[in-house]
Design goal:
By secondary structure, this protein is mainly beta. The protein has one domain: Nucleic acid-binding proteins (OB fold (Dihydrolipoamide Acetyltransferase, E2P), Beta Barrel), CATH 2.40.50. It is built from one helix and six strands; from the N terminus they run ββββαββ. Strands 1-3-4-6-5 form a five-stranded mixed β-barrel. β2 and β3 form a beta hairpin. It starts with 7 loop residues before the first strand and ends with a strand. Keywords: DNA-binding. Homotetramer. InterPro entries: NA-bd_OB-fold, Primosome_PriB/ssb, ssDNA-bd. One of its GO terms (molecular function) is DNA binding.
Length: about 110
């Protein structure tokens, strides 16, 4: 049962070119947005699409793969976990961010 705690699987399209950062510690981190679409029919029977945007963060070898093969518009699968962090803006206000920390990615489609 512990293997399904805080477990996320998404398939979607990359929203912008991934940002790759090489940290002073030697670690590499990749960040990008992922759009997932949910299709449904409204009360009139017309097809509708609801798009959700997710911020994805990947480290190490997964970041290397993203740097080499992932670009805006590419369809990918992501397996990971949710992580919420806080930071303080210059004006003193605290912000909360929830991100998907990717453990694995699956390259899909031809785009």
């Amino acid at each position: 049962m512990s293997s399904i705690k805080n477990h996320v699987q998404l398939i979607g399209n990359v929203g912008q070119e991934p940002t790759i950062t090489n940290l002073e510690s030697g670690k590499k981190v990749a960040r990008f947005s992922l759009a997932t679409n949910e299709n449904y029919k409204d009360g009139k029977g017309e097809k509708q699409t609801d798009t959700n945007w997710h911020t994805v963060v990947a480290w190490g070898k997964v970041a290397d793969i993203i740097e080499k093969y992932v670009e805006k518009g590419k369809e990918i699968g992501v397996v990971g976990k949710l992580k919420t962090r806080t930071y303080t803006m210059d004006d003193g206000n605290q912000r909360y961010v929830t991100e998907v920390v990717a453990d694995e990615i699956l390259l899909m489609g031809n785009k």
